Amino acid sequence: MKPGKKAIEMSRSELASYIDQSVLKPEFTQAEIRKYILEGIDYGCKTVCINPASLEIAGDLCKGTMTGICVVCDFPFGLSTTESKVMQAELICKNGDIEDLDVVANYGWIKSGMWDDVGKEIGAVASVAHKYRTRLKVIFETDALTPEEIAKATDTACKAEADFVKTSTGFFTGSEARGAAPEVIKIMLDAAAGRCKVKGSGGIRTREHFLQLIDMGIDRMGIGYRSTPAVLNVSE
User: Which of 46, 137, 166, 197 is catalytic?
Assistant: First the structure.
């Protein structure tokens, strides 16, 4: 949704409300996970985006703050069975007070044109998330898809009652990494047509890019822990 004012006119706290700060690197120590979650809280980010194994840490640190918790599901490949994804979603959502669940769609199915299967899987995970009043974001790994596939996947996810569609895991290496390029975000916004929201992730490292996407009408962005200070113009 396009904001009521230009991004450049927004306060730091308004801008921070667009950010899910990513704390997802598999090699992070427990101390590093705590450090970057705390930084996300200090910046006033909407959520910190974590792996399921970090949920206990995030729950303790985020409790009583304005920063919520976003947990990834079947990340980063999305190749578990539908039954497994549903079970993962159930375990994650019932064992923590989380705001968002970011599940990776089976983008091999998308490329194979298996749209009924894609939609049924998203719908099954959405049903679990919504049972716990958790928003569902669906990651398509758009760098692996054509513009037509991105548009069709967005439409499919909206029909399956996803709350957000999302561009990238940040872990794809099979082609050029465009991530949340403006042209990709435009395809998703146009295809969603207000039925679900759009989250951009991957390659958002400058304040200019960050503000541009807000003005386009994006509703959330996954920002790496190193890039949050840059997009918010926070002096180190």
Answer: 166
φ, ψ for residue 90, nearest 5 deg: -60, -45
In angstroms, rounded to a whole number, what is the distance separating the alpha carbons of residues 152 and 105?
13
CA separation for the pair 226, 236 (Å, rounded): 11
Tell which residue, 29, 61, 136, has the closest CA to residue 92: 136
Q: Give me the catalytic one of 102, 155, 163, 219.
A: 102
Sign of the CA dihedral running 68, 129, 34, 11: negative
Give yes or no: 190 in active site: no
102 tagged catalytic: yes
DSSP state at residue 8: G
Q: How far apart are CA 100 and CA 19, in angstroms?
A: 12
List the chain pLDDT tens, one digit each, 236 residues: 889 999 999 999 999 999 999 999 999 999 999 999 999 999 999 999 999 999 999 999 999 999 999 999 999 999 999 999 999 999 999 987 899 999 999 999 999 999 999 999 999 999 999 999 999 999 999 999 999 999 999 999 999 999 999 999 999 988 888 999 999 999 999 999 999 999 999 999 999 999 999 999 999 999 999 999 999 997 64
Question: Is the pTM value of this prediction over 0.85?
Answer: yes
Instruction: Reply yes or no on whether 152 is catalytic.
Output: no
* Nearest CA among 106, 82, 94 for reference residue 52: 94
